[in-house]
Amino acid sequence: MILTRSFYTRNDVVLIARELLGKVLVTNIKGMKTSGLITETEAYAGTVDKASHAYNDRRTSRTEIMYREGGTAYVYLCYGVHSLFNVVTSVEGNPHAVLIRAIHPLEGTEIMEKRNGKPLDAKRSGIGPGKVSKLLGIHFSHSGLSLLDEKPSRQETDAQMWIEDRGLVVKDNQIIIGPRIGVDYAGEDALLPYRFRYFPTEVR
DNA sequence: CGGCCGATCCACT
DNA sequence: GTGGATCGGCCGA
Fold this sequence. Notes:
The protein is α+β, with helices and mostly antiparallel strands. It has helices at residues 5-8, 13-19, 109-116, 129-136, 154-158, and strands spanning 24-29, 32-45, 73-78, 82-89, 96-105, 159-164, 176-178, 195-197. The longest helix has 8 residues, at 109-116. The radius of gyration is 16 Å and the shape is globular. The protein binds a DNA duplex through strand 3, strand 4 and helix 4.
């Protein structure tokens, strides 16, 4: 089933990051459908989190997307090269987000292979937030799209994305928890255990 | 308007 | 292990 509003609007972004492990991120870009199993996430806890773009309630045209209601895609350009995909959580006005750092390719592998420019490696492909967007065809212009299946806008006729629960259960003892990557500038918040990953055993 | 820098990746040594 | 690519966002003047 497709995750609905109530999954995203909860106020515990760290819990949601953990629960997104084992869910399936699906994109349909200009009719090309691809998907991947979510295997790594990071939580960004809004205005009090020094690693977040919305730290100290910084509102700009870019971060404004994070203030939307949970269930919105927040995609931004990093290092001028990579589009990084995040899921906005919590209620409107509270800028929480979960960065999807890795997927395991599922459907549409031929399409993903073409986007990748080389054959997919079952062990490595899709690891790294830039890779996630590359394989799934996500671009920073997709920022602001809804992950809920309602009110398709004009832009959404070109690009749709959502997250599915296919019943896969990821147990706590399969999960590695640690500090987030690349946020050294965040002082003590760089040490928060907001990164979650696991290595899928059964994949189909 | 100029300048700095980033929630990264890859090629190369 | 390291440095270059590459460009939008953000800030200060």
